[in-house]
Amino acid sequence: MAADREDTLAVQTLAVDLGDRAYPIHIGPGLIDRPESYRPYIRGRQVAIVTNTVVGPLYLERVRAAIGSDHVIDCIELPDGEAHKTLAQWAHILDILLARRHSRSTTLIALGGGVVGDLTGFAAASFQRGVDFLQVPTTLLAQVDSSVGGKTGVNHPLGKNMIGAFYQPRAVIADTSVFATLPPREYRAGLAEVVKYGIIRDASFFDWLEQAAPQLVARDSATLMQAVRRSCAIKAEVVAADEREADLRAILNFGHTFGHALETLSGYGTLLHGEAVAIGMVQAADLSVRQGLLDRDAAGRLKALLTTLGLPVAAPALPQAAVLEAMGADKKAVNGRLRLILATGIGNVFATEDIDGESLQHTLAAGSRLCC
Amino acid sequence: MAADREDTLAVQTLAVDLGDRAYPIHIGPGLIDRPESYRPYIRGRQVAIVTNTVVGPLYLERVRAAIGSDHVIDCIELPDGEAHKTLAQWAHILDILLARRHSRSTTLIALGGGVVGDLTGFAAASFQRGVDFLQVPTTLLAQVDSSVGGKTGVNHPLGKNMIGAFYQPRAVIADTSVFATLPPREYRAGLAEVVKYGIIRDASFFDWLEQAAPQLVARDSATLMQAVRRSCAIKAEVVAADEREADLRAILNFGHTFGHALETLSGYGTLLHGEAVAIGMVQAADLSVRQGLLDRDAAGRLKALLTTLGLPVAAPALPQAAVLEAMGADKKAVNGRLRLILATGIGNVFATEDIDGESLQHTLAAGSRLCC
Fold first, then answer.
1. pLDDT at B333
2. Confidence band for A19, pLDDT divided at 50, 70 and 90
3. Do B129 and A45 make contact, defined as CB atoms within 8 angstroms?
4. How many angstroms separate the CA atoms of A312 and A282, rounded?
5. Distance (Å, rounded) from C-alpha B146 to C-alpha A350?
6. Which chain A positions have a beta carbon within 8 Å of B156's beta carbon?
């Protein structure tokens, strides 16, 4: 880490180009403590900060201090973890907003990781048919993935993210100082999505990640800022081209159909989302090789980079029928047929329903020998 | 009624101009039974028809037959009435869609009045972050009001329509034959919203309504079709200019802040929504007269037309403090201040926070002597 260098890193701003739903992503160290991070985006006097019991003690008072006492600030602390990304927690946020008489001009602030962001975003989307919200993502995964693109929602016992909305924040405040406080496993899980941006769309970013891997592992500030900026830029570019996932946006799901099945069957929370995505990307690469789309070297590079970054690349032993079932039940299933994102090279992936069943079975049976 | 003339009435189509969310409203007799009412708007094989226990027995099989057996059609029958416009019923729809494995390319069809439309629309908005839906409104109120404009949602114990989304249907199928089956009280309640369109934006439509009142009371088909078409056109025009109720769209709430308070305090269901709006419009006109904005003759014409159409124009006796509280708790309250739509003439209303407290108290105390 290089905390002493942080002050010299300038804040960078990316624009997510979505017409009248356009918004900026501000990236840099120390943003959480700056009043100007929030104030341009708060219309009324009322603010509700939604966070969880882990992030709240670290950052809540700092956010409150930065917003300032001329606002009426309510704080809502949710239990931590994917298991709580439920309709019940979402309804709890709405109950509090109503009990505290928040009006249509209130602003919600999501302070936390992806779960807090998804819940708060869906609450903002549905409270009085839509109020403003800001994302203040405090994990690497949330900064590069869930805070960009407007996907909000909750899980249902019958599937992940089955209930929700496309709803854009007014701004994303990505403070790159927060990584210092992340537990190692959660930090590494976030790197999986960073790698994903290279493989789906940017070979030169992938090359850079291979070279920068030691600095990423060491959480070097300047390297991380560049990784976050480039990841957000790629995601913003894809989302701007296809906000509602008609076509192109589906490539962001590379590794996710496999990954969701692993998450579901292992029980939410056993594997972190990023860990499941890491394994899922290696499975997708393995299947791409088996279907003759991707050369083995490229698949090997993906597996090697993830390994260097400390991520799992072997699938846990699970009943194959159950995995297939879980993949078919995934919302990416189109009219009941399985649709996957496969790779043709580093930086090139595409959505297809042309899946070879036998190859898929081999991939699912490969366990720790994926891409070998 | 003039059922024999129905076949000679051509179907009319209005466009709601909302850019990439634009959609048509088809208006005419017999549309429910025509395959071409639905099929251009159904993308996948799966369809879910949401209706209630009153409307279902009348129309469900006819809709199913028109869509045809090459689709997989699930039917969801909800209990009837505003008391069931709840998160629980909304979640029930989502549970069934998931249990029956509906995919993102499913189409929901709202077959019923405003409650079914609002619930189904919000379910469509939030199922897998948004799927297609069609509105098939079977009440006059739903045809001229709730099916146009994209407001969807449910009530909360702390307020009406507090949870929901702006979400547009793919099309609205307004079959003007359905009025024959409406109970008299429900039919009359729908006329209140028709009158509203005249008073808020179209003096010549208001003049026409005064002349056409006897035919409207008699449910004459040609007269009704014209009333529905003009009402939808006015609403579509206002919504196209201001989809998310930033400013202009608020005029559609004329009489509604008063009306919602009456509904809430009488207990949902005691007064029909249209009845509460009728009284609320007379209260708004009364307050407009007291504040020197509207001449007494215009207010008298409004009250007389509503009376001719069989609608209530006297406020029930309710504790004034409770009414004020209910009005202030309404979601149209801006930053805690009361915002009302007041009239300056037939066809001219505006939103204002410049409310004279004493005049408002007189209006609320006026009971049956409003606008006199």
1. 52
2. confident
3. no
4. 10
5. 41
6. 94-95, 98
Which phi and psi angles does A246 have, rounded to 5°? -75, -35
**What mean pLDDT comes out for the span B240-268?**
86
* Predicted local distance difference test score (pLDDT) of residue A268: 63
The sheet that has A72-78: what strands, in order across it?
A12-16, A23-28, A171-175, A132-137, A107-112, A46-52, A72-78
Q: Any CB–CB contact under 8 A between A130 and chain B? A: yes
Q: Which of A269-278, A322-331, B199-208, B313-322 has the lowest mean pLDDT?
A: A322-331
Mean pLDDT of chain A, nearest integer: 92
Strands B12-16 and B23-28: antiparallel
Annotation marks residue A273 as catalytic: yes
Facing residue for B334 by CB, picked from A105, A153, A159: A105
Rg (CA), chain B: 20
Burial of B171 (0-12, 13-18, 19+ CB in 10 A): buried
Q: Which of A275-289, B51-65, B148-162 shows the lowest per-residue confidence on average (mean pLDDT)?
A: B148-162
Bridge partners (DSSP) of residue A137 are A112
Amino acid at B270: T
| Cα angle A22, A23, A29; round to 5 | 160
Q: What number is the ipTM of this complex? A: 0.86
- Is A164–B129 a contact, with Cβ atoms under 8 angstroms apart? yes
The distance between the two most distant Cα atoms of chain B, rounded to a whole number of Å, is 63
Closest to B283 (Cα-Cα) out of B294, B272, B270: B294
Contact check, Cβ <8 Å, B166/A130: yes
Name chain B contacts of A99, Cβ cutoff 8 Å: 158
Structure tokens at A342: 């496969």
pLDDT in tens, B287-304: 999 999 999 999 999 999
- Is B362 in the active site? no
Nearest CB among B45, B98, B164 relative to A156 is that of B98
B151 is catalytic: yes
Residue B350, SS3?
Answer: strand
φ, ψ for residue A366, nearest 5 deg: -75, -20
Q: Mind listing the domains of chain A with CATH numbers? A: 3-178 (3.40.50.1970), 184-369 (1.20.1090.10)
Euclidean distance between CA atoms A301 and A278, whole angstroms: 13
Mean pLDDT score, A316-324: 91
Which amino acid is present at B122?
F
Instruction: State how far Cα B20 lies from the chain centre.
Output: 23
A20 pLDDT band (50/70/90 cuts)? confident
| Active-site residue identified among B85, B92, B102, B151 | B151
| Chain B: closest CA distance from residue A153 (Å) | 8
According to DSSP, residue B152 is labeled E
Give the C-alpha separation, A183 to A111, whole Å. Answer: 17
- Of A160, A170, A219, A235, the active-site residue reads A235
pLDDT at A2 over 50: no
Cα of A11 vs its chain's centroid, Å: 21
pLDDT surpasses 90 at A193: yes
CB A145 within 8 A of CB A194: no
Is any Cβ of chain A less than 8 angstroms from the Cβ of B100?
no
| Chain A to chain B Cβ contacts (< 8 Å) | 98
Residue A345's pLDDT is 97
What local confidence, expressed as pLDDT, does residue B1 receive? 37
Enter the tokens of residue B32: 């429910």
The torsion defined by the Cα of A104, A105, A106 and A108, in degrees rounded to 10, comes to 90
pTM to 2 decimals?
A: 0.88
The predicted model gives A100-129 an average pLDDT of 96
